[in-house]
Design a protein that fits this description.
- The structure is a homodimer of 332-residue chains.
- By secondary structure, the first copy, chain A, is of the alpha+beta class.
- Chain A folds into 3 domains: 90 residues, Hypothetical Oxidoreductase Yiak, Chain: A, domain 1 (Orthogonal Bundle), CATH 1.10.1530; 158 residues, Malate/L-lactate/L-sulpholactate dehydrogenase, NADPH binding domain (Ribosomal Protein S8, Chain: A, domain 1, 2-Layer Sandwich); 43 residues, Wheat Germ Agglutinin (Isolectin 2), domain 1 (2-Layer Sandwich), CATH 3.30.60.50.
- Chain A is built from 12 helices and 11 strands.
- The first copy, chain A, has a 7-stranded mixed sheet, sandwiched between helices.
- The longest helix of chain A has 19 residues.
- Chains A and B meet through strand 4, strand 6, strand 7, helix 8 and helix 9 of A and strand 4, strand 6, strand 7, helix 8 and helix 9 of B.
Chain lengths: 332, 332
């Protein structure tokens, strides 16, 4: 497989965005996040997603010039308008606001409406953890999953991120509410691989491990059946109510996903040393179990991300050559 | 099936607790929560659990006289010691503190250590919603679920509750991180019913729908496989770090579950009218899907709770006669 150094990928993305009229600062910022997502093994929201991000810019649905604006402040909750700026920049900004509020007051909460896809939600979890803060964030999406008992997409897969800082690698959970994220299904499809566990239904309503069948039926399975369906609904309620923004329902009126709603919460641990001891104790205990398969160790959320990061920084980031070429062509 | 009026159940529980030395106020408060849990159809954490609650009092692991005490205040985050008081009273107290902080400052967060089982977590979600607030709370438990990839219990099933207020019935998600809660498994076992979907593994490591097999192997399936395993771990990290309390690891050093850790967050919606409109819009859209089974309507979290409540208030609460008699004997 073709491999591209992290710095090359970042510089290439940045050049493309400069051509699209981004300021140098914003081009580098966006390019860094895309390249970091691929570097960390989240290829679906790194290089693989970059061409459609550029398409969204060309369509005017992502506005490189826009900045978020404050709409209301209610105690420690802030409500912002994303003004359709790049979702990653809005999300970074909001998590930083939440971190700042949290450092001042213990906890902070920032809601944003009219923003765009943040790509990898984990990015903002790592951001909070890098600042020594607990980070929690979630987003709605276009409808891409039926509610439990239904067959039509009426829920987003609404990723939820929870991050806890840790000296030797943060603990970062980044989970979509579908058993497999849509990006993951596309990955299995393009690799012609079956899913290890059922990820949805086929057109006849049978549980399926075939990504193409599931993409065609649009019946992705919620995490834990009725439970993930309920959790997805709650996250849509929270982001919509707190941001006064568009719900999955309104977002789904459009063919393309834009103008979504998100919430960022940060909590400041009282004592970093005590937090650290407790975290290590919990992780050690979790790993102290006999294994179901001796070749598959128990890992904490974020552990494999860090391993992939180290390998990809050393050996280069594996890329789908056709997608990489598509990006290079944008520079012609 | 035998049915007992709500008021009779409440009065009976209260009399038992008075005999156990509870003050009148606390006896009624605890009795009300137990009776309400059964009234709302959560029988596993109502009547069915009452005898083991009384046992915990007799063992001195639940202290009816104790009151929570403030250990630290860090901005809008408060850290309390539950002093092994009844878990339901501590939880009610903490959610009320979070609601008060939220009403003053937009958001509030209260952590408590050294507390006891709160029975039905949904109780505190309904409490926040009744106050017009969003409520989020979660708890750790004794280890009762293997982490993904492991076969020994190293994680709690750590319920997560998210509640959004609504005029015609609050939206309240109350989910344990195992696909089926332990109480639910016991219910299927005592009814000699198979689970509708796999809930764990048998002793040979095969996915199973048999509650007894799963209880014996102690290999409950996390919600969404690796995802629920990760989320459970994160919740244990959050409650432990924020409360400076015992993690699932430490709780599991004891044979009985006591001295657990919990977090309560409340957020005050800025505008009740706007929240209400957005909530109705989201619920209507979710239900506006064709059904997989025309006899099984799509319901929002909490909807069936409310229906069961209405029926049980009218017709009496169905009880397992042997358990009800066990409680009556306590009054002899």
């Amino acid at each position: 497989m073709m491999k591209i150094p992290f710095e090359t990928m970042k510089a290439t993305f940045s050049k493309v965005l400069l051509r699209e009229g981004f300021s140098e600062d914003k081009a580098i910022h966006c390019a860094t996040i895309f390249a970091e997502n691929s570097r960390d093994g989240v290829y679906t929201h790194g290089l693989n997603r970059f061409p459609s991000f550029v398409e969204m810019i060309k369509l005017g649905l992502v506005n490189g010039d826009a900045e978020p604006t404050l709409e209301n402040q209610n105690g420690l909750i802030e409500r912002w308008n994303g003004n359709l700026a790049p979702g990653m920049l809005n999300a970074k900004f909001c998590m930083q606001r939440a971190i700042d509020l949290g450092k001042q007051n213990g906890i902070g909460c920032v809601a944003i409406r009219n923003t765009n896809h943040w790509m990898r939600g984990g990015t903002y979890g790592w951001q909070a953890a890098d600042a020594g803060s607990i980070g929690i964030c979630f987003t709605n999406t276009i409808a891409n999953m039926p509610p439990w008992g239904g067959i039509d997409p009426r829920l987003g897969n609404n990723p939820l991120i929870i991050a806890v800082p840790r000296e030797n690698g943060h603990v970062v959970l980044d989970m979509a509410m579908s058993q497999y994220s849509f990006g993951k299904l596309l990955q299995y499809q393009s690799n012609h691989e079956e899913l290890p566990l059922p990820g949805g239904y086929d057109e006849k309503g049978r549980l399926s491990t075939n990504a193409t069948d599931i993409i065609n039926s649009k019946r992705l399975l919620p995490v834990g059946f009725w439970k993930g369906s309920g959790l997805s609904l709650m996250l849509d309620l929270l982001v919509t109510i707190l941001s006064h923004g568009d719900s999955t329902r309104n977002i789904s009126d459009n063919e393309k996903e834009y103008g979504i709603s998100q919430v960022f919460i940060s909590i400041q641990p009282e004592n970093a040393e005590i937090s650290s001891q407790l975290t290590e104790q919990i992780l050690a205990y979790t790993k102290d179990s006999d294994l179901a398969d001796p070749d598959k160790p128990i890992s904490y959320p974020g552990e494999n991300t860090l391993k992939t990061r180290m390998i990809n920084l050393k050996e280069g980031i594996p890329v789908d050559e056709s997608i990489w070429n598509k990006v290079l062509v944008m520079l012609n």
